[in-house]
Amino acid sequence: MGGSSTVNASAGPSPAGAPVEFDHLPPSWEPTPVTPRLPLGVAIVSVLIAIFGVVMLLAGMLYLLATLSFSIVSPSLEIFPSVDIYGAAILAILGAALIGIATSLWRQETWALWTTIVLVFATSAYLFFTDYITVLFLVFVLLFLYLISVRRYFY
């Protein structure tokens, strides 16, 4: 695809029927990959998920540190004082997972989008079947529809 010609172009008029010859060919064109832009709503959702994940991770870690070592962390710093050690471990693991999902949403990875869609749908279904249809339910339904509509921006 991109060779060069070694024949010189003539400066004067060429004889009739002679092909036009060039010193060089232009560089070959290669398409550049298109990176879709991050939609504003996905950026906001990603930041909110990251904040929620950090709070959950800190809550779990502070409780675990306060339970396992009294000298490092004071029990007064616990965010959720009513959880037990297993609940705190689960909070820390879920918080780390949410931070990973938020980071992948920011990078527009498809698996993070579908994970978020499934979580939003499951939360909406839970709110619907427990007769807790309020503004929160409507927000989750709108978020579900929005995430479905922006799926073409993910790769």
Describe the structure.
The chain is mainly alpha-helical and 155 residues long. The chain has two domains: 39-107, no CATH class; 109-155. The chain is built from four helices and no strands. Helix 1 runs antiparallel to helix 2 (85-106) and helix 2 crosses helix 3. The longest helix has 29 residues, at 40-68. It is elongated. The model has no long low-confidence stretch (mean pLDDT 83).
Uncertain spans: none
Count of helix runs: 4
Secondary-structure element pattern, one letter each = HHHH
Number of strands: 0
Overall body shape: elongated
Q: State the assembly state of the protein chains.
A: single chain
What's the average pLDDT? 83
- Largest sheet entry: none
Radius of gyration computed on alpha carbons: 29 Å
Computed structural class: mainly alpha
Distance, first to last CA:
29 Å
Helical proportion, percent range: 55-70%
Summed up:
With 155 residues, the chain is an all-alpha fold.
SSE blueprint and pairings:
Blueprint lengths: L39 H29 L16 H22 L3 H20 L5 H15 L6
Helix pairs in contact: 1-2, 2-3, 3-4
Main features:
155 residues; 2 domains; 55% helix; mainly alpha; 4 helices; elongated
